[in-house]
Amino acid sequence: MSDIIAAFAGFFAMVAAFFNPPMDPVLHGYIEANVIYVAPVVTQRIVSISVGEGDMVEEGDILFNLDQADALSALTAAQAEERAVAAQLANLQTGSRPEELRVIEANVAEARITRDKAKRDYDRTARLTISGVASETALENDKTAYETAEAHVSQLEAELAVARLPARAQQVVAANADLAAAKAAVERAVITLEKYSVDAPVAGRVERRYLDPGEVSGPSKPVLSIQPPKSLEIRFFVPEERRGEFNVGRIVRVDCDGCGAPFEAKIVSVASESEFTPPVIYSREERHRLVYMTKAIPLEREMKNLLPGQPITVEAEPQ
């Protein structure tokens, strides 16, 4: 009987061990990199790409160029408008051109000669009228001709005076405002043109190229991604029953194949919501249980032998 009881006890112990396996002190995860996706702020066809996957770039290095034809046309038009407005303002500030002034001055001189002749004719007819040689009608006609010539001289002299003056203050103010707007349009066109040549926002390694020259890119369509230095992080999954062991700030020991000696990392975040299984199972056996994604950063940030996607194991360092 005792043998039967011992056999049943052993069987139930095996069943309990099967359904409640001993807790594995080692947790599993992978290395992830926070990459920068580089996309233009305008939608246009790619003309050239200056870098390839794996290339190291510095901040400000040119990465790729877009077709600039439309932007160059817009800049040329804006510059032409600025020159036209500037010329208009200069014309308002200086008055008429010397050539125009000389034409008006010549007209004034001719009108004065005509007026002087009309005055002489009028004076002669007046004397002849007194002596009875000329009629009153002739005198009246010469008087009218003289007054007309005098009025024409006055008109041309006024036109000459106006031509020598600059524009009214209100016109100059309006022209200055137009020039400021034209200059702003040129600046906008220059800024827009600069957007067609995209440089590296950060230093790092080109992780991946998504598009090739000839394809169209835009704000939501990155051309490539850059992995900055010190961007690697450890992502591993903590079972619910061990969640309290892995708090933000705790140091963990990380190991992986080909990484050399284990290294330390500091936990920077723990997910507040659980998930049933990690995206990729690295555990020794599949377990259907709740886990929490935890992120840690290597204390030694410059670790060139770590690669994104590399499987790792994590153990908590003694506190």
UniProtKB/TrEMBL annotation:
Pfam families: HH_YBHG
Keyword annotations: Coiled coil
GO CC terms, sorted: plasma membrane
Keyword Coiled coil set for record: yes
Coiled coil region boundaries: 101-159
Domain YbhG-like alpha-helical hairpin: 66-191
Keyword set includes Coiled coil: yes
Protein name from the UniProt record: HlyD family efflux transporter periplasmic adaptor subunit
Organism whose genome encodes this protein: Hwanghaeella grinnelliae
